[in-house]
Amino acid sequence: MRKIVFSILLLIGFLFVQAGCMPEFTPTSVEITPSTAPVSEPVTGSDSALQEPTALIIEQHMDATTASGGRPGVMNVTIVPVSAQTGSPIKGVEPIALGQGLNYSFSNDRSQMAVLSYSAKDCERYCLRIIDLDSWQEITGPIPLKKTLNDWFTLTEFDENSRYIPLLVSGNSSDTTEALLIDRTLQEVAVQVKLHSNVYAMTRTPDGSLAVYGTQTDPPNSEMLIYTALLDGTDLHTLWEQTLPEIKLSEGDLTDHSDPLAGVYYDPARIFSPDGSKLYIVAADEPTLYTVDFQTRTTQSFKIEPHLSWLEKLLAFDIRTAQAKMMNGIYKTGVASQDGRYLFVVGQQSVAIKKENDEFEVETIPLGLQVIDTTTGTLIQQMETKANRLSLSQDGKTLLLNSWELVGASDKIWTDVMDLATWKIIQRLNGTASASRLSDGSQAWLVTGANSGSSYTADIYRPGEATPRGHITRSSYVDWVIVP
């Protein structure tokens, strides 16, 4: 029997050597089922200040004076409601001036928007305010926060009926993070808890708790580890926490900043499930999916690989996975399907090349698109794309794949629109497009163009249309408010 098996293996090996290649593994054919639920209920009523489908654009402009001492020449931010049909500001609706810096999130039903900024006319430092999107009026705030301008803030989806707004505050180089609950009724900080980690992502779980993700320094060797925790939604005490030392965030010597070849950074994709009950982490240095389940308070891992037949498994028995050992780093990002069953992941490698004059040149290599089954780690699809960022449409039927590359001395930015029913690129948009909702609940692709130095552009596309409904050109920076 042993001789027969050996003969079969020898024959198979001979056939593939003759063919000049090993077998290509065919991705599993699985249909990504979009949600059948309505995209959204309109957030605006018949008596709304926003009488027509509206998008929100961020404009940055120069003010002669500011609230922080009348210093001229400071750039300030306003949010301007614009018509989805023309791109023109809505008549009779005043923009909201927010000073500098901008963080925002939305309520569960998207009827309210929480906004954090600093140096506005009515708030010298950081302030939190809540805007009702139907009336386009502030209904809470400004609530002042005694924080420095170097702090980083994270807002997440909140309950529109709750009096508390969760907020994370981290310093640039701090190993701690403050978790806050802001009392919107009393307009003050109600709860403040210090977390001994650098937390920079947060979401609500089905039971109203807060799931967080970040990094933590391991004292013995100062190694940076991935950190996750579950916080009580009422008083922010820690219900459960876990580090994941098996996921690499770096390798080699990172202390010598003059030599980019000495070490490598790994930035894995971190994706919360749509209901917030799980966190999926796709490692950057190896094909592994890690799942953190906040409901069962457990973690598990799966090897990311195609579903193989017995013959493919036999042929791959002695094949070793090539580990990525790039000189600068590997970055991945992704989104989850609406039912949480699949992950869509893209990324890129940054490679430092030392030239003859001892200077370094950085080359970026796209990693393509991977579609991963969250229950098994099975690689459903793997496709070539230069995308390094992506978003999923609100109906779950379309991916927007954002790409960037440097061509000569100018940027080339575009977005490929992929139909998930056919896995085909059905449209290319010039600029960076994001999937968003308008005020009436309908979908739109909101696009920002490449900056020319003196002109900034933005476009509003309706899905399936070849030309934009509205085109905006400004002499200073513009961006879109993306409504999930």
Give the SSE map.
Blueprint (H helix, E strand, L loop, with lengths): L1 H18 L34 E10 L10 E10 L12 E11 L5 E9 L2 E10 L4 E9 L6 E4 L8 E7 L6 E7 L4 E8 L2 E7 L5 E9 L4 E9 L6 E7 L5 E3 L10 E5 L1 E4 L5 E5 L5 E6 L4 E6 L6 H6 L13 E8 L5 E13 L5 E7 L2 E5 L5 E5 L3 E6 L5 E10 L2 E10 L4 E7 L1 E6 L5 E6 L7 E6 L8 E5 L3 E3 L4
Parallel strand pairs: 16-21
Antiparallel strand pairs: 1-2, 1-34, 2-3, 3-4, 4-5, 5-6, 7-8, 8-9, 9-10, 11-12, 12-13, 13-14, 15-16, 17-18, 18-19, 19-20, 21-22, 22-23, 22-24, 24-25, 26-27, 27-28, 28-29, 30-31, 31-32, 32-33
Short description, anyone?
The chain is mainly beta and 484 residues long.
What do you see in this structure?
Strands 6-5-4-3-2-1-34 form a seven-stranded antiparallel β-sheet, with no helix packed on it. Strands 15, 16, 21, 22, 23, 24 and 25 form a seven-stranded mixed β-sheet that branches. The longest helix is centred in the first third of the chain and has 18 residues. Helices cover 5% and strands 50% of the residues. 36% of the residues are buried. The N terminus is likely disordered. It is globular, with a radius of gyration of 25 Å. It is mainly beta.
